[in-house]
Amino acid sequence: MRLAALITTFAILPAVLSAQTVGLRESTMPAPHHDRDMGYAVWYPAIQGSASAPFGGNPIFEPNMVALNAAPADGRYPLVVLSHGLGGHYRSLGWLAAGLAQSGAVVVGVNHPNSTVFDFDMQTGLEHWTRAQDLSRALDDLLADPVLGGMIDPGRISALGFSYGGWTALSLGGVRGNLAGYISHCDTTPSRHCADITRAGSDLRMLDAALWDGDHADPRITRVVAIDPGLSFGLNARDVAGLDASTLLIQLGAGADRLDATDVSADGSNLSGLLPQADLLEIAPAAHFSVLPLCTAQGAEILEEENDDPVCTDPEGADRATIHAQVLAATRAHLWLE
User: What is the residue-wise DSSP string for 310-335?
Assistant: First the structure.
């Protein structure tokens, strides 16, 4: 089933969420495949009345309201494993995780080693299969947790990701990479991601093709949401044949506002054409970074002074809060939360 091909930012009113209190726990867990620990966070429905406080804000981004280490609410809930983008952080999708927890889900996100804002190595970070391993490891850890594990309905487990994390979610659902196809894309019609790889002095040809092209699906994942997914160029029908999970693709922006590296249309990677069974939601006006947190009044100015990516600058006519509401509403509907 295909959703409407193009929806303006004002076509969907912000979803009205329940008053469910959102709990948050942060910690680390062993990640043997990285030979070190990795950080993680769990957002969950908490006991009503738990004291909430601003969390995750900084001079650039607005915080979210959560109850740190609050007692969990009774019940069994769907679980969502959450994957951030290249150079991101689980807090960069905290607004979405908190919104899903407020709607009745447990959400676990990790800081993927080697591809996080404070822990970044382009060459090693390109080993995308380790990200799927990260989330499968987090899933194992959470299901075994003596407190939070009992909240989870093991029959309702989903993967959700943004950008590089969108690929991670698709990989967990059964999509396989095609290293030769991605190299050919970067050699012939390079996108921004290809340019970033070259600028970092990294080399796709140094990667293990068997691992890049391997099957990294987690059979526990039954639904997938991929927001502006990366690494989708050079795929063919065989590479996506293993995707059994019910899938929602969310495409941000149109025309010049759409990031070329995450364009799933026929003008880009044609991932949407390879997955005719997936739902597709295109949101415009919007940009790739429109799903990052709401920005403070001075956020754009600070980034401009630092000559950083314009992550606080949305296209003319776009409203980030409304874009967030659209993404959250579509995700909730796809993940048993309606």
Answer: -TT-PPTT--HHHHHHHHHHHHHHHT
Contact criterion met (CB below 8 Å) for 23 and 77: no
- What are the helix and strand counts (H, E) for the chain? 11, 12
Q: Residues 321, 291, 59, CA angle at the centre, nearest 5°?
A: 80
Complete domains list, the chain, with CATH: 22-334 (3.40.50.1820)
Alpha carbon distance 307, 105 (integer Å): 38
Confidence (pTM): 0.94
> Which of 39, 20, 278 is CA-nearest to residue 141?
39
| Model pLDDT for residues 29-87, shown as the tens digit of each residue | 999 999 999 999 999 999 998 999 999 899 999 999 999 999 999 999 999 999 999 99
Spatial neighbors of 168 by CB under 8 A, at least 6 apart, are 83, 112, 128, 131, 132, 135, 159, 161
| Token pair 């280490």: residue | 69
**Which one-letter DSSP state was computed for residue 91?**
G
